[in-house]
């Protein structure tokens, strides 16, 4: 799996698609967009989506849906997930999943905006533990 792209601004760098049926979703997105979807080594129930775009376009992940309301989540690059999460709360948003490490890749925080949409903050950090 490639790491979420490094961004210089607050760009979408990764996305996750939840699916009720992984095989059906792989077939659908593969046929629709030509995406290559392969099991992510070492992680259960997580597949890497190679969108085939340039390095500045996001790849993503395909995962088993955890609850009926789970929607696609976009990951937005920020300099600091801690500072950005504090700003989310100051602006009336909510933190759904606190700062979580993805070893040797970075940190994420799952948030909800003022309109009940879910999104994630992503801070790249090669030394994340």
Strand content: 35-45%
Largest sheet: 8 strands, mixed
Please give the alpha-carbon distance between the first and last residues: 18 Å
- Count helical runs: 2
Helix content: 10-25%
Which strand order do you get reading across the main beta sheet? 2-3-4-1-5-8-7-6
Low-pLDDT runs: none
Shape descriptor reads globular
Describe the structure.
This protein is of the alpha+beta class. It has helices spanning 22-33, 81-90; strands spanning 12-19, 36-39, 46-50, 59-64, 73-77, 94-102, 106-112, 118-124. 17% of the residues lie in helices and 40% in strands. An eight-stranded mixed beta sheet has the order 2-3-4-1-5-8-7-6. The two termini are 18 Å apart.
List keywords for this structure.
8 strands; about 15% helix; eight-stranded mixed beta sheet; single chain; about 130 residues; alpha+beta
What's the topology here?
Blueprint: E1 12-19, H1 22-33, E2 36-39, E3 46-50, E4 59-64, E5 73-77, H2 81-90, E6 94-102, E7 106-112, E8 118-124
């Amino acid at each position: 799996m490639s790491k979420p792209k490094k961004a210089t601004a607050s760009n979408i760098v990764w996305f996750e698609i939840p699916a009720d049926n992984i095989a059906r979703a792989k077939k659908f997105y593969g046929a629709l967009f030509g995406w290559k979807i392969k099991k992510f080594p070492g992680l259960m129930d997580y597949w890497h989506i190679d969108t085939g775009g340039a390095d500045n376009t996001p790849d993503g992940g395909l995962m088993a849906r955890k609850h009926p309301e789970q929607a696609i989540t976009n990951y937005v690059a920020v300099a600091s997930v801690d500072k950005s999460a504090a700003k989310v709360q100051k602006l009336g948003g909510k933190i759904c999943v606190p700062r979580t490490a993805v070893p040797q890749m970075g940190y994420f925080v799952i948030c909800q905006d003022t309109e009940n949409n879910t999104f994630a903050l992503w801070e790249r950090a090669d030394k994340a533990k």
